[in-house]
Predict the 3D structure of the following.
Amino acid sequence: MKRRTIVIVGGGAAGMMAAISASGEDNNVILLEANEKLGKKLFITGKGRCNVTTACPPEDFLANVCSNPRFLYSSFARFSNEDMIHFLEKAGLKLKTERGQRVFPVSDKSADVIDTLKRECRKKGVRVHLNSKVESLKMNEKGSVVCGVVLESGDEIGADAVILACGGKSYPSTGSDGNGYALAIQAGHSLREPEPSLVPFIMEESWCRDLMGLTLKNVSMSLKIDKKTIYQGFGEFLFTHFGVSGPLVLTASTCLGRYGRQLKQGKIRLILDLKPALDPDQLDKRFLRDFDMFRNKNLSNVMEGLLPRKMVPVFLEISGMDGEKKVRDISKKDRRRMVEIMKALPMHLKGVRGFEEAIVTRGGVKTKEVDPATMESKLVGGLYFAGEMLDLDAVTGGFNLQIAWSTGYAAGCAAGGH
């Protein structure tokens, strides 16, 4: 077999996996990274701990993919989350599974994941070029086949195959600046408009700033447009200086791609259930019990038994209650109003934060223009895509990184002739 030269553009999760799987068969594999080191975005994932994948049953994986899950059938079947776990452990990285079936390195250090991948690249003979930004693709005269890349420095590298694994636009400080999309467009591909996903919400309510830093655990949250519920979930919720964040909010943000118009029009409401374990009648009985026990105390003091102290003044203001009022003077109507607010605290979405805070990018190269088994372009021969460049995104919990591993593996194997 002829010695093939495969150029991979982007040294992140998908790029390193593509390089590893493309090697062998005496292939000449060249990995180009614009940054001064590999895996810069991988380094900050999972708050620096790197949630490498999920331990969910493989048959449940695609249910957690938000955009184009069917496109992933083939690549995920070939290299699943179980395969990734086996790959890392065989390479010497010890893993552990935490709450929510999230898989982390035992060391809790993302650097150990990157080092493992770099070591595998070295073992496979991958040639890594850092500080090497690709300016454009080299094509044949007809523009039907890719034959290499042109670097920003002006240097050219010929290739039998080029894999674009440049990332999306989230966390641009790590190098995900959307440059890969420009290369895809040069090759004639079209994009679904990239948008921030797994991203915090900007809220209209100014009182969110008063609660900045407060984390609520085990709360229920829903997003509504008029009477229609577009998301419902349970988990951890965080107030910030601009609105809200936390795992519950980030996961909810994945559903907003279908409701961009309503978001811009301010029609999406967030409803927070602060006591999901109790129905309204049970919660009312809890109020009655506390009010009877502390009937001579001020309402604000008694409410500290039901809510975090920081939240009490905000809750009372929303409920229209005077915190200095004695509990014995609270009417049934007032009590019912507080139960109602505690079970359905209303808030209003103003927007979402930008790519600087988005964990992943929603949108990218349209999957209908890419072969799902090989990740090869249907428009240009020898051109492949992997990872976040594609219009694929999922919920939190290691699913997005697994998309990178699966598509990177598929692209590398196909480009390398395996």
